[in-house]
Specification:
The chain has about 475 residues and is mostly helical. Among the domains are: about 210 residues, no CATH class; about 60 residues. It is about 75% helix and about 5% strand. The chain has a two-stranded antiparallel sheet.
Length: about 475
């Protein structure tokens, strides 16, 4: 029998080894398959990368040259060191070689405007607007501001606002709003902005959906401003059965001071942000000039994806995750009320400063106040009327703690009743007498004056035991 047991044990050991070897083999095979897939994906990406770049060069190769030329022309216009003849020859050549690109006629407009060629300017401008009205408008609004042509800039700004949809605004709009608010654009632009903003708010507030959404966000924002130290009320935290509700009420009630400081900080700022805003405007202009055109984007995205696959040694999932994270911040679109709320909550995250934050709070004031009233009424309605306590089995409740004497009497009665009930369970009166004497002595020695109560309780126990 022992021989059979030994053989069975040997078989189990061999089975475990075999199972381990098979698992190791399966893992090795899985690693091999994964490595092979990555290797093939890497080879395919390298092949595609070359083909895609060749397609880009054939179809849009001159667009890159136009973008480089645009940057040089803008710098030349700023410094005034490029002759009119050079500008004319360069921009006309661009127009011929990039027949569908909006930036080509825009550069012709700029060059002909500088040499005061009205006829060519108007023709080229018409063509540029036809190719891409929005980009042309934004381009010339920023260029005119950069060159200090206030009247022309205001006209382009008026057209820029006509392009905006208050239900679906680009993230770049917050920078334009910021520039107007901080005075980077001419003073007349501020009134133009206010007029359009009022119209947008009227449109968005015709239904309750947009306002209710903002009020709900503000109410949640108010809830986050209250705070309560974890050790502020340690005894309540330990003995109150409804502590979570009490803590929530106290925390929300404490939010008002924090909110007062928050809004004071917004409106009392004196920092000059105009310099940083000018830099942001120039960055938008630079991106507008240097970014790929819409026609190129599908091919450029494929080139970028294959480039990342090569960088990640054939790992397509990692490459796709990276390209998803590279989406430009201006691609996000929100409605105007949401843009205001974002700027009011966290200006840095939304690309604004405290100046625009103050403007956003001012415009949003009506629904901020409504949200605050709702928030206050809500937590006041949920305030616990009593503190429910359980202290070593003693259950009680108090409204505000002013009934201390009554609570002590209840406490003494609870323990007297408890001891009496426990003593009734004892079969020998001697045990009760001994317990009573011990309680009386310990109470007098340890608790002093208060121990008299304990002594009395001990006396009651002795008396009860004797009788």
């Amino acid at each position: 029998m022992s021989t059979v047991n030994v053989e069975l044990g040997g078989l189990n050991t061999k089975h475990d080894h075999l199972k381990s070897d098979l698992l190791q083999l399966a893992n090795s095979f899985s690693d091999f398959v994964e490595s092979d897939i990555k290797h093939k994906a890497l080879q395919l990406a390298e092949t595609r990368q070359g083909n895609l770049k060749q397609d880009l060069q054939i179809k849009f190769g001159y667009y890159a040259e136009v973008r480089r030329m645009a940057t040089g022309i803008l710098q030349g216009v700023d410094t005034g060191i490029i002759s009119d003849d050079t500008l004319r020859h360069t921009t006309e050549e661009v127009m011929i070689k990039a027949p569908n690109y909006w930036l080509a006629p825009s550069l012709v407009v700029l060059a002909s405007w500088i040499r005061d060629d009205k006829n060519t300017t108007e023709k080229a401008l018409t063509e540029s607007l036809k190719r891409d009205d929005y980009k042309t408008t934004l381009f010339f609004m920023l260029v005119m501001r950069r060159l200090g042509r206030n009247d022309a800039c205001l006209q382009w700004m008026h057209r820029y606002f006509l392009h905006q949809n208050p239900h679906n605004l680009d993230r770049e709009f917050i920078v334009i709003l910021e520039a107007i608010t901080t005075g980077v654009f001419q003073p007349a632009s501020h009134q133009l902005m206010i007029t359009n903003v009022k119209t947008w708010i009227d449109q968005l507030t015709q239904t309750d959906n947009y306002i209710d959404k903002q009020k709900a966000q503000w109410a949640e924002f108010f809830k986050t401003k209250g705070s309560l130290s974890g050790k502020k009320y340690p005894l309540l935290e330990e003995f109150a059965t409804n502590w979570d509700s009490l803590k929530s009420s106290v925390t929300q009630a404490r939010s008002h001071d924090a909110l007062d400081n928050h809004f004071k900080n917004i409106f009392e700022t004196t920092t000059d942000y105009s310099k940083s805003i000018k830099i942001q405007l120039d960055e938008i202009l630079s991106l507008l000039v240097t970014n790929f055109d819409d026609e190129e984007l599908p091919l450029q995205n494929e080139v970028r994806l294959n480039q990342l696959i090569i960088q990640k040694d054939g790992d397509k999932k990692a490459a796709q995750a990276l390209i998803d994270n590279e989406k430009h911040i201006f691609d996000e679109k929100v409605d105007f009320l949401q843009m205001l709320t974002n700027a009011a909550f966290d200006p840095e995250l939304s690309g604004a400063t405290k100046v625009t934050q103050a403007l956003a709070v001012s415009i949003s004031q009506p629904w901020i106040l409504e949200a605050h009233d709702t928030f206050t009424a809500d937590y006041r309605n949920k305030v616990e009327e009593k503190v429910e306590l359980i202290i070593d089995g003693f259950k009680t409740s108090t409204t505000d703690g002013t009934d201390e004497t009554e609570q002590l009497q209840k406490h003494d009665k609870y323990w007297a009743d408890f001891l009496e009930n426990e003593l009734k369970k004892l079969s020998s009166p001697k045990i009760g007498i001994i317990i009573g004497v011990l309680i009386a002595l310990l109470a007098l020695v340890i608790l002093g004056f208060i121990g008299i109560i304990g002594a009395l309780i001990g006396g009651i126990i002795i008396y009860s035991s004797i009788n």
